[in-house]
Specification:
332 residues; alpha/beta; TIM Barrel; binds iron/sulfur cluster; rSAM; iron ion binding
Length: 332
């Protein structure tokens, strides 16, 4: 038994062998196990609703092979500079009215620079925070000082995905290292900001890579409070434009394994949801997903809108999670 009387311990000492044994279970058995862990540690039927806004789109110097915003790929993405405070607050209000409790702002930067744009982002964070929304940012790499500034401005969470396994990382991105990613996650954690970090499947990685990424996430000193699981949305003009689409069963396997490894974490069904049926999504919720992005766009790719999601919630008997409900992680 754990200190809080739960039967399943929160562990950060998972071995690769243990994770493989979970990941490769027959899928229905895996779903049942994940659903049991979910029931024990999470409010079943409750789903966090987040909205993601691209506050600065395209022109990014990085070479993430999946990303339409990398300047070096010709994807026809609608490039724009940093939005104004007014544009952001209007979008945040729309998200709040649509039922979102977390508002995430993404900028296509390699890293945060200490300049006027960063000051503007800090103002945006303050403004959205004052609206009673959990504010999240994904701005690329941040150092300790910048993470502290974001925290002071009222930032609640910071997203920085690992994307894939350490072994596969250089096949996907060459302009930064896995270590750089982990350093930013550590800086965010030190500043007392909630960590959101997950990855993408369908990049051409192996099952071992998927297991490797889950191993890194689940053996961090403290599990990320949120783990987004994305399915690649192949975009014309990117090196991964011809990648085959992942199946719902692959998503379910990732989600269920993440749920079992990190019972207290919000597991977010992220990119790729747009082409999933309600039945597909219901399977993901059964397997332990309890967070989604809603709103018509996910940075630059299509996403189900508020009304479609409300209808799905009504059908499946799901309720939106209230904001600021996150509990501190307990790591044994
Ligand atoms: S994923 Fe982010 S860092 Fe990579 S190219 Fe796209 S915007 Fe730049």
């Amino acid at each position: 038994m754990t200190q809080d009387g739960q039967n399943t311990a929160i562990r950060n000492d998972w071995t690769l062998e243990e994770i493989k044994a979970i990941y490769y279970k027959p899928v229905l058995e895996l779903i049942v196990e994940a659903a049991n862990v979910h029931k024990e540690h999470q409010a079943t039927g409750e789903v966090q609703v987040c909205t993601l806004l691209s506050v600065k789109t395209g022109g990014c110097p990085e070479d993430c092979s999946y990303c339409p915003q990398a300047a070096r790929f010709h994807t026809g993405v609608d490039v724009h500079k940093l939005l104004s405070q007014e544009q952001v607050l209007t979008a945040a209000q729309r998200a709040k009215d649509g039922g979102s409790t977390r508002f995430c702002m993404g900028a296509a930067w390699r890293e945060v620079r200490d300049n006027r744009d960063f000051d503007k982002v800090l103002d945006m964070v303050k403004g959205v925070n004052e609206m009673g929304l959990e504010v999240c940012c994904t701005l690329g790499m941040v150092n300790e000082y910048q993470a502290e500034k974001l925290k002071e401005a009222g930032l609640y969470a910071y997203n920085h995905n690992l994307d894939t396994s350490e072994e596969n990382y250089s096949n996907i991105i060459t302009t930064r290292t896995y270590g750089d990613r982990l350093d930013t996650i550590e800086n965010v954690r030190k500043a007392g900001i909630s960590v959101c970090s997950g990855g993408i499947i369908g990049l051409g990685e192996t099952d071992e890579d998927r297991i490797g990424m889950l191993h890194t996430l689940s053996t961090l000193v403290q599990h990320p409070e949120s783990v987004p699981v994305n399915a690649l949305v192949p975009v014309k003009g990117t090196p991964l434009e011809n990648q085959p689409l992942v199946t719902v069963w692959e998503m379910v396997r990732m989600i269920a394994t993440a749920r079992i490894l990190m019972p207290k974490t919000m597991v977010r069904l992220s990119a790729g949801r747009e082409r999933m049926s309600v039945t597909d999504q219901a399977l993901c919720f059964l397997a332990g997903a309890n967070s989604i992005f809603t709103g018509e766009k996910l940075l630059t790719t299509p996403n189900p809108d508020f009304d479609a999601d409300k209808a799905m919630f009504d059908l499946l008997g799901l309720t939106p999670r209230k904001s600021f409900k996150e509990e501190a992680q307990h790591v044994c």
